[in-house]
């Protein structure tokens, strides 16, 4: 590598088939769309998956295995919340058939098994786990962990897969303040990973990039079709892409809160997944969980037994 090389794309240069998977549910898969479009332009085979907040029992998709469903543009699902199906329909409006593979919210064991089934079917050799926000880097002793249950279940499941490469990419610096995340602790995590050679730098998403324009169009289209539950994270990132700053609200869901829309929100922060997993203080305790309830209970138990919770720190600038 040198100054003219993106460490993230240098790492992906030899990948043949990349699975871009939303780590934390909801719209996390959307945060991977700019990467999806760029990798396709580079000639890679790319697939999309998401840990789903959609009630999959109400979806008429193709069940590939317990806890794994293939959703396409013609899949029927809940009217009020079905971002994966609406994303597939957005692709169809552009003349493309792009399925989204949905993982059920469950424990690490069945989630890992579902990932293994999908790997056998698709043959991907690389996973990029995408987090809308940055709380996936919290190791467990921070004052605020954000919403770790889904992120860390995905992290543990992918960490166990035998693959050529595994990466974590975060988008939306500052968004997790709403969930109590201290971003000074996030930056400490970045520094610690940098010491291990596991930090792959920051890649700016700019409004003039064609893949970013497609991402923004997909977010706006799906959020308009889901007026009762648009994505706070994705709309905040879009606001940052469009040059907004400060307490800017795109949805009534954020009414009464103070937002900090800022240019750092529209940047990819990339890391080696194995190193991120090794830093988590409680990840090993999640590896044999069977249900989402067990995951939440193990995290709560760790927090109750943690001898020192690092207090809030303001960024001194």
UniProtKB/TrEMBL annotation:
It holds the Pfam family DUF1152. This is DUF1152 domain-containing protein.
């Amino acid at each position: 590598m040198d100054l003219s090389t993106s460490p993230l794309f240098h790492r992906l240069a030899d990948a043949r088939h990349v699975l871009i998977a939303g780590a934390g549910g909801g719209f996390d898969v959307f945060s991977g769309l700019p990467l999806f479009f760029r990798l396709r332009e580079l000639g890679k085979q790319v697939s999309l998956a998401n840990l789903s907040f959609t009630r999959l029992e109400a979806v008429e998709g193709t069940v590939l295995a317990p806890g794994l469903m293939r959703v396409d543009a013609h899949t029927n699902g809940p009217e009020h919340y079905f971002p994966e199906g609406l994303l597939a329909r957005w692709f169809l409006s552009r003349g493309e058939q792009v399925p989204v593979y949905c993982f059920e919210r469950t424990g690490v064991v069945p989630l890992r098994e579902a990932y293994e089934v999908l790997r056998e079917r698709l043959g991907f050799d690389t996973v990029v786990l995408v987090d809308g926000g940055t709380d996936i880097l919290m190791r467990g002793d921070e004052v605020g962990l954000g919403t770790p249950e889904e992120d860390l279940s995905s992290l543990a499941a992918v960490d166990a897969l035998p693959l050529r490469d595994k990466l974590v990419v975060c988008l939306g610096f500052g968004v997790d303040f709403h969930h109590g995340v201290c971003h000074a602790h996030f930056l400490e995590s970045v520094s610690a990973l940098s010491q291990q050679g596991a930090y792959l730098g920051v890649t700016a998403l700019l409004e003039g990039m064609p893949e970013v324009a497609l991402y923004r169009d997909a977010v706006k289209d799906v959020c308009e079709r889901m007026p009762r539950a648009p994505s706070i994270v994705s709309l905040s990132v879009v606001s940052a892409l469009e040059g907004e700053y400060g307490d800017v609200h795109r949805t009534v869901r954020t009414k009464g809160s103070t937002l900090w829309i800022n240019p750092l929100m529209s940047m990819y922060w990339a890391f080696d997944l194995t190193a991120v997993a090794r830093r988590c203080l409680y990840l090993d305790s999640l590896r044999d969980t069977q249900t989402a309830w067990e995951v939440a209970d193990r995290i709560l138990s760790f927090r109750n037994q943690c001898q020192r919770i690092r207090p809030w720190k303001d960024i001194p600038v």
